[in-house]
Amino acid sequence: MKRIVIFASGSGSNAENIISFFREKPEVTVAAVLTNKQTATVLDRCERLNVPAFYFNKTAFRDSDTVVRLLKGLQTDLIVLAGFLWKIPSNLIEAFPNKIINIHPALLPKYGGKGMYGDRVHQAVKENKESETGITVHYVNENYDEGAIIFQAKTDVTPSDDANSIAQKVHQLEYEHFPKVIEKLLS
């Protein structure tokens, strides 16, 4: 059985979608969800879905091997960043080479990098009058949003779209494709 650990910083809608997808697949399990926010709504979702969840602070994440040891103890095959906003430290990348993936709410290399997440990305897409946007699933390396691209999916952006409607279109792509990309990587 393959074991996924999801990292999330916010509401956890993508985490819940991934957990629900793999509930129907006995060959893959979501072993745990980790978060860097004690008040993240993802913790409530995990409680409701009966998935173990752990909180960690900056010291445990950046200045020690606490998180690496936890992940190894969970026998993690793949780390999935689903709305996780902190940069991944080098000790974690080294411990799990090509085993950490992220989803970004734009077609990288456009609209990536430090500070480009969520509504900031959708607003930039609107302001720059893009005709399309989408999602990028990529491997995580030492730089924000610069790891090798695994998968992209596109959606049209119309002149009448605002940041909220763009976000809704992008979320639909995330929900549709992210679990399938994870499944393919694990097979």
TrEMBL record:
<dbReference type="InterPro" id="IPR002376">
    <property type="entry name" value="Formyl_transf_N"/>
</dbReference>
<dbReference type="GO" id="GO:0006189">
    <property type="term" value="P:'de novo' IMP biosynthetic process"/>
</dbReference>
<comment type="similarity">
    <text>Belongs to the GART family.</text>
</comment>
<dbReference type="InterPro" id="IPR004607">
    <property type="entry name" value="GART"/>
</dbReference>
<feature type="domain" description="Formyl transferase N-terminal">
    <location>
        <begin position="2"/>
        <end position="182"/>
    </location>
</feature>
<comment type="pathway">
    <text>Purine metabolism; IMP biosynthesis via de novo pathway; N(2)-formyl-N(1)-(5-phospho-D-ribosyl)glycinamide from N(1)-(5-phospho-D-ribosyl)glycinamide (10-formyl THF route): step 1/1.</text>
</comment>
<keyword id="KW-0658">Purine biosynthesis</keyword>
<dbReference type="GO" id="GO:0005829">
    <property type="term" value="C:cytosol"/>
</dbReference>
<dbReference type="InterPro" id="IPR036477">
    <property type="entry name" value="Formyl_transf_N_sf"/>
</dbReference>
<dbReference type="GO" id="GO:0004644">
    <property type="term" value="F:phosphoribosylglycinamide formyltransferase activity"/>
</dbReference>
<dbReference type="InterPro" id="IPR001555">
    <property type="entry name" value="GART_AS"/>
</dbReference>
<dbReference type="Pfam" id="PF00551">
    <property type="entry name" value="Formyl_trans_N"/>
</dbReference>
<protein>
    <recommendedName>
        <fullName>Phosphoribosylglycinamide formyltransferase</fullName>
        <ecNumber>2.1.2.2</ecNumber>
    </recommendedName>
</protein>
<keyword id="KW-0808">Transferase</keyword>
